[in-house]
Q: What sequence folds into this?
């Protein structure tokens, strides 16, 4: 989970970028509430997809605003100075419009925002919440890293790129669970099994390794000579000898996610499949070799794509990788025309792939944290068509 030290540092970093004259900011994106307070609405609960708010004040204080059913989904105590929890459902009375509980909470802490000027994360709050604080909310922009003017939501997303130690540790936990799921694929992806069978094996192994219920999502699909590119949720398709099974998925724990891939040969791989794998593997290694803070994302793409071209294959048809954290995908985006530059603390994927008619599709992926002199690999699953 996120630590108190990390949450306080993220708030400090945020306020260092907020113009003077702004004394409070109202955060409404649930991911950003968590980013600054460690409070997360459990997605596997009765309150999934509900809302909460976080009132940050320049003085350093933070106030969580939520209804009682949202509050009880938290698996850890939030890092806040105060909580205003509205009893929306009490098992005794009829319920009202749930979103209006947040308006009640705002009114209860009116003294914290009505006498000074502030800002609203417009991307994250409802129109009715924005209207409730409009009397003192200023239309002031924030400063981006290049001194361009950005919104509150954009500023937070820029800050999110450079992960603090508690975020790295949480991502490592996600990746350890994802590693366990990949180990299970070698046994599960056999002729006669369905794509759904393999997915269920991955989910079970991942959640057992995580030690908690978590979200496992991504691509769990077979490719072959007839269907060389496929993605999405698993189906009832029955695997056959000669197929390739792509397991490209994330394990989400407390809002942060891993994302890495392996492709398994069902039965013995053909010579064409082995050559395709070697090209993808070497493209991954080439991209990994150039990773460091300050390098252009497009240069990483070029390093991987050059290997494929040299082997007689087409250039990389999709991104070479992307950022990781609380969304999918996040900046930086490693594509041929990217304007992104890698930063110290970026957590990224590398995932070169090839999709060849008459053979099948495959990709292979690892996750890394970028540092000034290189990158640390965070994922540890076995790359290869077989477990040999």
A:
């Amino acid at each position: 989970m996120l630590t108190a030290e990390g949450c306080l540092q993220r708030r400090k970093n945020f306020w260092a970028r907020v113009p003077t004259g702004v004394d409070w900011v109202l955060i409404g994106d649930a991911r950003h509430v968590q980013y600054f307070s460690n409070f997360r609405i459990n997605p596997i609960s009765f309150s999934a997809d509900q809302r909460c708010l976080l009132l940050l004040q320049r003085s350093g204080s933070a106030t969580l605003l939520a209804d009682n059913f949202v509050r009880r989904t938290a698996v850890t105590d939030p890092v806040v100075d105060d909580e205003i929890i509205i009893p929306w459902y009490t098992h005794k009375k009829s319920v009202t419009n749930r979103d209006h509980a947040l308006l009640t909470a705002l009114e209860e802490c009116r003294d914290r925002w009505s006498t000074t000027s502030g800002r609203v994360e417009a991307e994250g709050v409802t129109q009715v919440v924005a209207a409730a604080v409009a009397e003192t909310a200023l239309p002031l922009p924030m400063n981006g890293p290049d001194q361009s003017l950005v919104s509150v939501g954009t500023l937070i997303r820029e800050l999110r790129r450079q992960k603090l130690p508690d975020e790295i540790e949480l991502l490592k936990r996600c990746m350890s669970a994802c590693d366990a799921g990949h180990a299970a694929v070698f046994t599960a992806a056999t002729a006669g099994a369905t794509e759904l069978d393999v997915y269920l094996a991955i989910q079970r192994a991942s959640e057992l390794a995580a030690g908690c219920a978590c979200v496992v999502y991504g691509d769990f699909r077979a490719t072959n000579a007839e269907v060389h590119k496929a993605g999405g949720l698993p189906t009832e398709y029955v695997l056959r000898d000669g197929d390739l099974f792509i397991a490209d998925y994330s394990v989400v724990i407390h809002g942060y996610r891993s994302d890495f891939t392996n492709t398994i040969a069902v039965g013995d791989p053909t010579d064409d499949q082995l050559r395709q794998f070697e090209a993808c593997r070497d493209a991954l290694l080439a991209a990994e070799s150039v990773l460091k803070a300050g390098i252009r994302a497009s240069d990483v793409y070029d390093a991987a794509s050059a290997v494929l071209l040299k082997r007689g294959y087409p250039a990389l048809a999709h991104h070479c990788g992307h950022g990781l954290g609380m969304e999918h995908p996040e900046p930086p985006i490693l594509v041929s025309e990217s304007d992104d530059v890698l930063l110290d603390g970026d957590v990224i994927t590398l995932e070169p792939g090839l999709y060849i008619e008459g053979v099948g599709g495959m990709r292979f992926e690892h996750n890394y944290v970028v540092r000034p002199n290189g990158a640390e690999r965070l994922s540890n699953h076995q790359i290869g068509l077989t477990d040999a």
The first strand starts at residue 24 and ends at 27. Residues 282 and 307 are 7 Å apart (CA to CA). The two ends are 36 Å apart (CA to CA).
